[in-house]
Amino acid sequence: MARRPSVSSVQIAREAGVAQSTVSRVLNGGSVAPQTRRRVLEVLAKHDFQPNLAARSLVAARTGLVGVVIRDLTNPFYPIMVRAVERVLHEEGLRLLLLSDVATAQESLAMLRRERVDGVVFTSALREDPLAWPVSEHGIPVVLCHRTIEGFPGDQVEADNTTAGRLVADHLLDLGHRRIAMVCGTERASTAEQRGAGFRARLAERAPQVDLVEVQGDYDYATSYAAVRELLAAPQPPSALFCHNDVMAHAALNAAAAEGVDVPGQLSVVGCDDAPASAWERIELTTVRQPLSRIAEVAARLLLERLQDPESPLSHEVLPVELVLRATTAPWSADTAS
């Protein structure tokens, strides 16, 4: 098969009716009017134009490549966020480099530096994070998305996790529950710390007599499943559970089924995230809805703004949450109490 003849950026510009600098801005993710960008992209696609990335990196300060760090690819929460980030980057002509926890922090840092990424979005950073801090210290712009770190030198965006915990506490107390357990997320994760703090504070305000039991679920299905089965097998099992994310709540529902505990007749279960599966008819999980896509979109926009103005003040945005009532919670009843 004959090889398609190469086309230069000068020819692309001439056919699109723009300056060569405009083609360059489109390729590098610069600011271009939407109609002009669309016209240039159509011509690029027509000729299957592939720029010489190595040559571009020698003459430009930016590579048009953004790293996105995600730790748990099995959690349906994170692909939603990655897709939202990628959509924003794609609109600006930028590319995404995805890193998971398969590589060590040292290997990931080496890859990010080797690929000369323009910036990095972290979706699951922890306090003293072994990758986020070194990336920032190497001068690479970082945005923390969904989780935050106090004092971190980067832009941050998160949901209102403290309010999420308070909303769940109010709901369970309003239903009459007084034997309550909390399945906690990963230690050193801001989401777990904030949701737990909001939940505890609201219980203390409204029902200080409640003896709250806490178990570690680590945002992991298997860990949470085992912990909840142990809780339910105890002489005085809880009548309600607050799980720090939906994956752990799904584990709790299956643990209850394995122990012969009816949900919501004998046990009310509340999650946090509102992942798509939580609305499925066989699950119908009561949960706190986070604006997952919006959080990720804001993170991507914050990074783009940081690249345009590196010296601007740091941003920290907190987005609202809402309680979504479904079929896994019900009023406490003395008739079903054990």
Structural class: alpha/beta
Estimate the strand proportion: 15-25%
Distance linking N and C termini: 76 Å
The CATH superfamily of the largest domain is known as Response regulator
The CATH first-level class of the largest domain comes to: Alpha Beta
Overall tally of domains: 2
The CATH architecture of the largest domain comes to 3-Layer(aba) Sandwich
How do the helices and strands line up, and which of them pair or pack?
Elements: H1 9-16, H2 20-28, H3 34-46, H4 53-59, E1 65-69, H5 77-91, E2 95-99, H6 105-114, E3 119-122, H7 132-137, E4 142-145, E5 155-159, H8 161-174, E6 180-184, H9 190-206, E7 213-216, H10 221-232, E8 240-243, H11 246-258, E9 268-273, E10 286-289, H12 292-308, E11 316-319, E12 322-324
Parallel strand pairs: 1-2, 1-3, 3-4, 4-5, 5-11, 6-7, 6-8, 8-9, 9-10
Antiparallel strand pairs: 10-12
Helix pairs in contact: 1-2, 1-3, 5-12, 8-9, 10-11
Q: Can you give a write-up of this model?
A:
InterPro entries: HTH_LacI, LacI/GalR-like_sensor, Lambda_DNA-bd_dom_sf, Peripla_BP_I. The structure is a single chain. The chain contains twelve helices and twelve strands. The chain has 338 residues and is an alpha/beta fold. It has two domains: 65-158 and 291-319, Response regulator (Rossmann fold), CATH 3.40.50.2300; 161-290, Rossmann fold (3-Layer(aba) Sandwich), CATH 3.40.50. A six-stranded parallel sheet has the order 2-1-3-4-5-11. Strands 7-6-8-9-10-12 form a six-stranded mixed sheet, with helices on both faces. β8 (240-243), α11 (246-258) and β9 form a beta-alpha-beta unit. The longest helix has 17 residues, at 190-206. The N and C termini lie far apart (76 Å).
